Amino acid sequence: MSEHNRIPQHIAIIMDGNGRWAEKHGKERYEGHAAGLEPVRTSLRSCVKWGVKYLTLYTFSTENWGRPQKEVDSIMELFCQSVISETPELKQQGVRVRMIGDRSRFSQKVQHYLAQMEEETAHGENLTLIMALNYSSRDEIRRAVSRIADDARKGILTPEAIDEQTISQYLDTAEYPDPDFIIRTSGECRLSNFLLWQASYAEMYFPEVLWPDFTAEDFDRAIEVYQQRDRRFGLVK
Ligand code: IPE
Ligand code: IPE
Ligand code: MG
Question: By C-alpha distance, which of 50, 45, 56 is closest to 7?
Fold first, then answer.
């Protein structure tokens, strides 16, 4: 495939702007989150269409627990409902769902629903959907360092043997390639503690559109933007 029609193997999206969308439409914040489900469906279909193999969605950050309890509760309820409503289509499209983040903080009910979704979609071969849940990059790195230290203490690892690959292997994303392309909607230009290690050479794109308004055309436009980028990885072409 030529440079100009290459497709990112892994896209990561910071789905931002649900609250502002709700405010703009005179609705409650939770309605903004509910409206964010349709662009998730659309993006999954687009990934399958374009042949993108991994899609990571920043769904709930470790910092998001600090939001009003009512909003947090409604987001948890939305996770559970989505498992029920979306799993059949995910299976049909060959989407395998995985998670990154520390899920132990979720209620038993939410953990049960999430595990069920992973189990039921385990055989999907077209696309891996990675949901970042109770995720933040610093927390992920902290957990990785703690396990590395533990393995060093047990003699499984020697300090001299720790290279970049070792660190990658202890992160939640060990099984997945680094993201090629990070999209953040709503016009904010920051990573907000998302994939800091993995994003080293990712291309980034910050469209103004609020997440609930993100359409298949916006997705296609993002692919076009990616295709115009010149990735050099520190080298000379
Ligand atoms: C992103 O939308 C969804 C989550 C963080 C769960 P926001 O809720 O952050 O929307 P804004 O940024 O307030 O508009
Ligand atoms: C990042 O968005 C987290 C998710 C999209 C899940 P936030 O809205 O929480 O981030 P800040 O507060 O604008 O940095
Ligand atoms: Mg936000």
Answer: 50
Per-residue pLDDT, 3: 52
CA distances 110 to 77, 79, 101, 105, 107, Å, are 8, 7, 14, 10, 5
Predicted pLDDT of residue 98: 98
What is the CA(16)–ligand 2 centre distance, in A?
6
Is there a catalytic annotation at residue 193?
Answer: no
Whole-model pTM over 0.90: yes
Q: Which atom of ligand 1 is found nearest the CA of 29?
A: 8
Say if residues 31 and 19 touch (Cβ distance below 8 Å): no
- The catalytic residue among 64, 102, 151, 213 is 64
Q: State how far the Cα of 88 lies from the Cα of 92, in Å rounded to an integer.
A: 6
Enumerate residue ranges in the chain where pLDDT < 50: 1-2, 4
Ligand 2 contacts CB of residue 16 (under 6 A): yes
- Ligand 3 center–CA 19 separation, angstroms: 7
CA of 192 to the centre of ligand 3 (A): 9
Contact 198, 173 (CB under 8 A): yes
